[in-house]
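Researcher: Hi, I'm a grad student and pretty new to this. My advisor asked me to get structures for two proteins we've been looking at. I'm not sure of the right format, so I'll just paste the first sequence and hope you can take it from there.
Model: That works fine. Here's the first sequence with its structure tokens right after it:
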Amino acid sequence: MTAIRILGLDPGLRRTGWGVIVVEGARIAHVAHGVVAPKETLPFAERLLFLFDAISEIVAAHAPDEAAVEETFMNNNAQSALKLGHARAMALLVPARAGLPVAEYAAKVVKKAVVGTGSADKDQVAYMIARLLPTAGPTTEDAADALAVAIAHANARKARAMTSAQMAILEATRRTARKTAA
């Protein structure tokens, strides 16, 4: 079975969490994690460039096979939502530019994959990350969220693989039944 490296990203203009895991069969292991935090005093465009460069360095350093990004929740402040969207664009663009497939997951899906409920709070997510990835050590909220995004993607990959395998078995059974009936 081939090991797959997954980069999870929790985008934010102030702090973008990132985490890399490796998945081999049912095993999930921690590789690295951290937070990208551009200086808030930088002009907006330079903060975006900082995010772009930092995520590019993470992709180069850890060579992920796939990436997953958390979708943003709707913000009542349109200006904040727009700025967060720009940061999210960096999280989507950099891995895509590196040729990686990029998946997106709603926060509720990520929380459900890691904690078991879509309404989990950040402390519950961090607690489960510590249990699922004990070698990760202490994580910030942003890094824990990014690792959770990577785990959600790993789980979704397994579900898709199972579905594909089940469909192949079903199709083979149908072909055999047709041959037998004829």
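Researcher: Oh nice, that was easy. Here's the second one.
Model: And its structure:
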Amino acid sequence: MKDNEERFPDGSKGSIVLVISTSGYVGGTGVAAYVSSKHAITGLLRSSQLVAVQHNIRVNAVAPFVTPTSMAGFAKQWTDSGLPSNTTQQVAKVIATLSQDPERKGACYLVSIVLLGTLKSYSELIGIM
């Protein structure tokens, strides 16, 4: 990416969006390896900023709340219980929006359907974070 041409209105050469998980900030899921790996990605987000700025690349992250997928062994039980969760489409929409926003650099945004359901726009999400 450092050799890319400038592509965005702010002159940046690209955008990287890491997927962390809320466990990368609060942990508490009881799965040490998963929580540790998500904290590592949070560290990557924070430690990459100086190099990213030198190469005019934006690095941000999203931290989704529970998003049941076929990869998660508990997806059916979670969905059947009626607990709130995201869909992969909702998370993808936030990732796509964040990747195109030249104002966002070094940020991480919580993606929670409970929170998103009460918001009218992405700009409102940014305003409250």
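Researcher: Is there anything I should tell my advisor about the second?
Model: You could mention this: The domain at 14-128 is CATH 3.40.50.720 (Rossmann fold).
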